Amino acid sequence: MLGGLSPARFLREYWQKKPLLVRQAFPAFADPLTPEELAGLACEDGVESRIVRGKGRRWDVAWGPHPESRFIELPDREWTLLVQEVNRWVPDAALLLDAFSWIPNVRVDDVMVSYAERGGSVGPHLDSYDVFLVQGRGERRWQWGSKPAEDRTFVPGLVLRILADPVLDRDEVLRPGDMLYLPPGFAHHGIAESPCLTYSIGFRAPSAAEAWTSFAAAAASRPGAAELLADPPLAPAREPGAIPPALLARARAMIRSLDLSDDAIDRWFAAHTTRLKPGHTLEAPRTAPDAKKILARLAKKNATLVRSEEGRWAFLPAARGALRLYVAGEEIAVPREASALAKLLCRARRHDGASVLAAAKNAAARALLERLFAIGALSFGAIRR
After folding, report:
1. What is the pTM of this model?
2. Which of 61, 176, 190, 361 is deepest in the core (most CB within 10 A)?
């Protein structure tokens, strides 16, 4: 998949450092959906999508949901449909993420799928995340810079952030199964050579501003956070504009009372990076199955267990072999007896029933399964024939 590179070498030499083109990273690649199915998704409420048309310095974007008539009116050249979070709606598209299980789950963003007619493009641009561009049907020409973009001037007057004068010194045509990795901040420009599907597997990290805001919000929700800053004994002010040193001392003490221990920061980070995105929700079943029903279903031939795509899964070690499991931002205490099951569920999006049964031979593991089904984090997939 990495052109003969091990994941360790790729992470050491390429990850967030320089692009990598891999021919036939996915041999005999089969598209998990058709262009028509992608267009159907783009017509649905709650699905983020856009249609981009243009070239040079003239670009236009239309945001979804799109009426079906819009696709009938489009020309047969120079337009691109992009649909975000296709992994939420198409299970086989979600499985593309499992090919990258050597990257921590907390870095996963989504699988965006684009369909373009000949000449279709979204213009030369930058991304703020790591992305693997996997080519499905058709061919797309990619031009990219071999070094991080220094000139980040954008074409004025556009909604889209199109680079005005990008340096693109690499030029290659990707065919089905080929893959291009691009770190954040590298200029790139894709142009459809023929009607084509491209899968963008994105990995994102929080910005410092996002992290500070989230940590402060978490701290503000803790018990005692609503208490007012009490004045120290005050003397009559000679200068009302001067802040009393004793009041400054109390303000410093209030801020420093925040729990900034490694454990507190680790637990905040795990919850933050696995949280639900805006508009996402775990859908709990009306009647959650108990452990007996879950085990009976898992025991059926070719049974499949599926993770929800509505949030990320991760864990932190706890004392005496226990874990803290994080699912969609929720922390779940997992005793040592169920830790093997928790780790198994974090490794992949889909599991065969036999492997889950093997890890659920004790009461603690079965209780964990019950809870994950009850909150909508797990469900049964279609029986594989």
Report:
1. 0.92
2. 190
